[in-house]
Amino acid sequence: MGNENSQVTISVYELDMKRNSFARLVASGQDIGEAYNIAFHTSLSYEDSFGRGKELCENKYVAKKINEYCDDNKVLSTINRRDVA
Hints:
Radius of gyration: 18 Å
């Protein structure tokens, strides 16, 4: 049988405003480097901003948020005028 003393740990991690904005931009199709500069209000070179954006995309919480926004965008794209009325 199973271990009665085992516990499930649920971790809730909320992204800060800049990382959340970055995730939303990437999910909407924005280039990673451009999304980084927009979300973090920087004017880094493309190579630098792309590198930092790539690092953010490798963060499991940011990647999860990007996927959530992609899923939301898929649902929104299926809604038509008749559905709204």
